[in-house]
Input
Amino acid sequence: MNEPATTDAFVHLILFLAISLGIVTMGVFYSEADDAAARAVWPKRMFTFLVGCAVLVVVMLVCEHTFAALG
Output
């Protein structure tokens, strides 16, 4: 049977990707005047957003590990 932590992590990842899809799509279509240009730019913006979020997660985990070791 699935571990609850694994299932929760998977569900949270799916929810994060769904929210990210909406955030990036709305941002691209509001910033570009032409829909064709927005569709062309979307993959790069999505990749940039996801990489930026991954970097933020790594920084938060490093801070958590560092501050937990101090306490």
Remarks:
- Residues 4-70 form one domain.
- The longest helix spans residues 35-70.
- The mean pLDDT is 92.
- The two ends are 36 Å apart (CA to CA).
